Amino acid sequence: MPAPLLYGAWVGVSALLLPFIARREVGKLRGVGLSVDRAHEKLGHASVRRSAGGPLIWFHSASVGESLSVLALITRMGVILPDAQFLMTSGTATSAALVAKRLPPRCVHQFAPLDAGGPMKRFLKHWKPDAAVFVESELWPQMLRRTHDSGAGMAMVNARLSETSLARWGKQPALARYLLEVFDLILTQNDAMAENMVAIGAPADRVARGVNLKSMAGPLPVDEDALYEARAALGHRPVWVASSTHAGEEEVVLAAHRALLKDWPDLHLILAPRHPERGDAVAALIAEAGLEMTRRSAGDQPGAQVYLADTLGELGTWYSLSDLVFLGGSLLPIGGHNPFEVAQAGGITIAGPHLANFAETYAEMQGAGAALEAADAGTLRAQVARLLGDEAAREAARTAARGFAEARVDRLDAIADRLIKALGLRADG
Q: Which end of the chain has the lower number of beta carbons within 10 A, N or C?
């Protein structure tokens, strides 16, 4: 298929803008303390060597959630393909920091090259990927076409485009077809998205419904030393967790906690905002609520009425302290966050009504009794109070959560097998 005019225009514009965009992107990474070598990965300069031997499979995702969602898939593919090497790329320093703690065997992380000729040529010349897997909605024109031209097999997993993106691509059908035809396989999160991808130009015979990989991410890491210290500090006090909360949600959580303290005066809340840099703002809200607080970023241990867990990458540790978790991003129209991480830790998820990002997952969990809904401070207080006061109901919900997590393993194997076949990979490398 000949390149549309818009693609040629993008190539030209990206070349003109590259010096300015490169300065900005490299500056961002340097600004958070990364080395020059790591920052220059954005320009296609690799900071590590390509491993010799078996095939190299490149996974590319945008940021934190997308990156973490494929770790379990990479691990499973690594078991099936024992000679394969894996490369993960993402665009943000936060995603790099979190992924670094959980990289599967034979896997390295690099920052994704900018979508321009020079960076992409350097990147592909160094890494020479045998296969490339793009996660969710990463449709950078040159990245897709230049990777395809290199001869790599290509797939898209967890495909999900917003209504705005679908409308935008729908207005450029020639460009959409030109980009989507590079994929040997497109696995969407649900049937509706499969139909949408075909409607904007994806080859119908290469599109199929997959599963939401975020519902299959591997277990969150646990800092055993921090867990031991926290348990020693808390003793036998009852604990509940409110995690991944956004602005406008902490007030609801704190109101529910104040109400709960009337019946459980020694109840402890671990409050972990989605963005730790909001720590000072959340600390002010805790003070305004008249609650006593200790703070993780200050080196404190749990012990007061509220523990502000304003650090990155420690949710697994906090989930190990309680099986009652309110999961934020759900009281407001944000779309919700990943309840599978809670279920894998043996926890019960309580969430608000806004769950578009994980609609199928929550529906299944709620149907099984592994997740509950709370729309405001009153219903949140009621749900936590019921589980604190009814051990039989609590154990039934825990059992349902464990069953939900275990049932996902077979599905992950099926996705891995399907990808290996579509990408032309073999178990012997």
A: N
